[in-house]
Amino acid sequence: MNIKRFTRICKKCGKSFVTKTARQVYCNDPCDGKYLKKQGEKRNCKTCGKEFIAQYPYQAYCQKPCGYSGPEKTFSHLSPDRSKAGVLSEMFVVIDLLKKGYEVFRSITLQSKFDIVAFGNGKLFKVEVKTAHLNPSTSKVVIPPHPHQDHDILALYVVETGEIIYINPELGGRIELAEFEAERPL
Hints:
13% of the residues lie in helices and 27% in strands.
C-alpha cells in the first residue's frame, strides 16, 4: 500500500517538510499556531500564583498538587488546601440540613462510618458526605467512590454548582428534598 505524501513549506519558519495530509501548513509543534507558549517559559501558577518554569507547552500549574486543586476542580477559591474540600462539603450539607429544620450532629473522628447524624420528624438519619464534580464534557455529576458502610443517606456536594444531592444508597436513587425535610423549620 502506497501512502501519499505531500511536500510543504512551513508558514512560520519557511523550512520544507513532508506530511501525510494536504492541509498541514506548519512543520512541527513549535511552529504550529496552537502552540504559542514554549517550554522553559516563566509562568505564574493558576492556583498558588508562584512563578515556575514550564516543562510543557500548556502547563498552567507549578506542580501536581496545584494542578489537582485548580479553582475549576475544588475549593481553592475558598481555601488553597485541597484536604479541606471534604470538610467544606460537610459544612455545606450541615447548613442545608439545619435550614430544613433538622438537628445535626457531626462526627469528630476521622474513622467514623458516616459524617453526620441528622434528627427530624422523629427519625434519625446517618449521612455520609462526598465532594462531587461535574464532568466537563458531559456536565453530568461524577459520583466519587463510596463503599456503603453504615449510612442511610449519601449527600453529594457538587462543587461547580453548589448543589446538594441526597441519595438513598439502598434504592440507588435520588431523594427529593420534599421527602427529606423536617416538619418544623427552625
